[in-house]
Design a protein that fits this description.
The chain has about 625 residues and is an alpha+beta fold.
Length: about 625
């Protein structure tokens, strides 16, 4: 078969398959054009999810008659001022969006420039250009796309429901609105909630308001600001607290030079920054804005301009991780409203803010058997620092010894400490079920999971020691012998070098056992056998091809779990207070090594509402 040139209309329809795969892609292209034209207001209207109608109106610079005709020709653009393909300060210059859309729909454009006496209208029906005609419109441009994919009916079979397509288009508008707080955005259509984001400015306050409008009050209350400028790269935005997570990566919002992107490098950097803070299967929530020299990033590597490529990818990744890490560490210890609201809701079905507590049918106070007055759990003997896995002279819970065992001494320990209530986590008042510390603050109470909290403290200490290459080790007076399957011994001994870096020195002891010669001083005595078994499982799960840094952190987290205060350990009042103060000093202590919250906060006003006092 001889080679032939394809019909130009067919070429445009093929291009449309890359650029406009669904209505949301058309909305994205049209709104980007409006923003590149300097619009301060963009209005989007959808019908049937965009399949029947997409209308985008703006108050931008508009086009004259000559530009209007060129706008629907392939590879014609106003977004590339010269011949330099690497100095792009707009959304892109491929010049395929409008002709591609026009090839598979009925397109009409009405536009007027500021100094012109009238507007002009141009229609294209499935790639066939109609004559230019006069029209009435104020300055700006209106683009109407009707019967999208009518020229290629087979494409319609691949579209989802009208509601699903409308929601995808709404997500596009939300992301563009987050990137440009200086413009007002509206969206209306059947099957979706109308959107209206007020016009703001370009400062940090305007960006914060817009992010709050789009992502909601809950994100605003559970996030911290990002601000890092280094190596020609500026990183701004808002990072969600580690315990504020989502079930998918959809809450990771990334922007490069004002362009919403879904970039694998940036997503991986965000995941790495939260690696030991977020539970497996959960994702952080973040709005991350990068401003970088246009010459250092290629924005046209993807037909739909959804991906970017950085010239110095490793530098960008490192700075993103640094920016997020510094922001989270600088935020101190903060309660997550998500966890607190779940706790309040658990007190009774139907509880809601501002409403009286729900009482189940047949509820009455006498249905509850009387209980003994709660008293503070006390150890019968003083607990030394080594009981928490800390060797003598190392970091430990510091407290003054007091006589214990008498009712008078217990009552004295329970005396209110108003000074302690001024701390973020308050003053310890009781230990429940030998695992949960209850502390009192000025305006509420705090419930702490002692094992989860101390697990994080031990983990952070081990990480600091590893960074300084001085994990303190303790030589075993008598080597601990652990019997294992011969195959497990081989796997474990193959990683002996890594384990020695972490303070765990092992050697073979016959064909089916290993001997532990030295162990990290932070590990609790008597837990080494279980630790060895867990390490074998870790190597099974992670393999040997995982990056060393991630593997080391994972192993440290496993060790920290065995070196922490266990559930069921009774603590003295001083020990509980010391734990709270140490949590307040340790970045990341609001979540355990598995990403679960270590504490929840209940405000006094919320507690009073539970009892109908408000």
């Amino acid at each position: 078969m001889p080679i032939r040139r394809l019909d130009p209309v067919l070429v445009d329809r093929i291009a449309a398959g890359e650029v406009v795969e669904r209505p949301a892609a058309a909305v994205k292209e049209l709104v980007e054009n409006a923003l590149d034209a300097g619009a301060t207001r963009v209005d989007v209207v959808l019908e049937a999810g965009g399949r029947r109608l997409i209308r985008v109106s703006d108050d931008g610079s508009g086009m004259n008659a000559e530009d209007l005709l060129l706008s629907v020709e392939r590879h014609a653009t106003s977004k590339l001022p010269g011949e330099d393909l690497f100095a792009i300060a707009t959304f892109g210059f491929r010049g395929e969006a409008l002709p591609s859309i026009a090839a598979v729909s009925r397109l009409e454009i009405i536009s007027r420039q500021k100094d012109e006496s009238a507007a002009h209208a141009l229609s294209v029906d499935a790639g066939n250009l109609r004559p230019l005609r006069p029209a009435a419109r104020a300055r700006g441009t209106t683009v109407e796309v009707r019967d999208l994919f009518a020229a290629v009916p087979a494409r319609l079979k691949f579209l989802k429901s009208d509601r699903a397509e409308a929601l995808a288009a709404a997500d596009v508008v939300k992301r563009l609105a987050m990137a440009h707080p200086k413009a007002r955005f509206t969206l209306s259509g059947d099957g979706i909630a109308a959107l209206d984001y007020a016009q703001g400015g370009e400062d940090v306050e305007a960006l914060a308001r817009r992010v709050g409008e789009v992502l909601g009050r809950e994100f605003r209350e559970n996030s911290v600001g990002l601000d890092l400028a280094r190596e020609g790269l500026t990183i701004r935005g808002f990072a969600g607290l580690p315990a504020y997570t989502r079930g998918s990566a959809g809450a990771i919002h990334l922007f490069a030079n004002g362009r919403p992107v879904r970039d694998k490098l940036l997503t991986a950097a965000v995941r790495a920054a939260y690696m030991d803070l977020v539970p497996t299967g959960r994702y952080p929530a973040i709005a991350l804005y990068l401003d970088i020299d246009p010459r250092a990033v290629d924005v046209n590597v993807h037909p739909a301009k959804a991906e970017v490529r950085f010239r110095e990818a490793s530098l960008v990744r490192a700075l993103v991780i640094t920016a997020i890490g510094e922001a989270l560490r600088g935020a101190g210890i903060r309660p997550v409203t998500q966890a607190s609201e779940r706790a309040l809701a658990a007190f009774g079905s139907g509880w809601d803010r501002g409403r009286a507590p729900y009482r189940q049918p047949g509820w009455n106070a006498q249905a509850f058997a009387p209980v003994e007055p709660a008293t503070l759990s006390r150890a019968s003997t003083p607990v030394s620092p080594t009981a928490f896995g800390f060797a003598e002279g190392q970091e430990s819970f510091e407290y003054a010894s007091r006589p214990s065992g008498s009712v008078e001494s217990q009552a004295s320990d329970l005396a209110p400490s108003f000074e302690g209530e001024a701390h973020p986590l308050g003053a310890a008042r009781a230990q429940l079920h030998e695992n949960y510390i209850v502390a009192q603050t000025h305006d509420g109470l705090v419930i702490v999971d002692q094992h989860a909290a101390h697990e994080r403290l031990v983990y952070e200490r081990l990480k600091r020691e590893r960074s300084a290459r001085r994990i303190e080790r303790q030589i075993m007076l008598t080597p601990e012998i652990v019997d294992l399957d011969a195959a497990d011994c081989v796997k474990l001994l193959a990683e002996a070098g890594i384990l020695e870096e972490l303070g765990l020195v092992i050697e073979a002891f016959g064909p089916g056992a290993i001997a532990i010669r030295e162990a990290p001083a932070a590990l609790a005595p008597g837990k080494l056998r279980q630790l060895i078994t867990d390490l074998v499982d870790s190597f099974e799960e992670w393999g040997t091809a995982v990056a060393l840094e991630r593997k080391l952190d994972h192993l440290l987290a496993t060790m920290a779990c065995h070196g922490s205060v266990r559930s069921g350990r009774r603590l003295r009042a001083e020990e509980m207070d010391a734990l709270l103060r140490q949590m307040e000093r340790t970045p990341g202590s609001d979540v355990c090594n598995h990403g679960r919250p270590t504490f929840i906060v209940l405000k006094l006003a919320d507690i009073e509402r539970l009892f109908g006092r408000r």
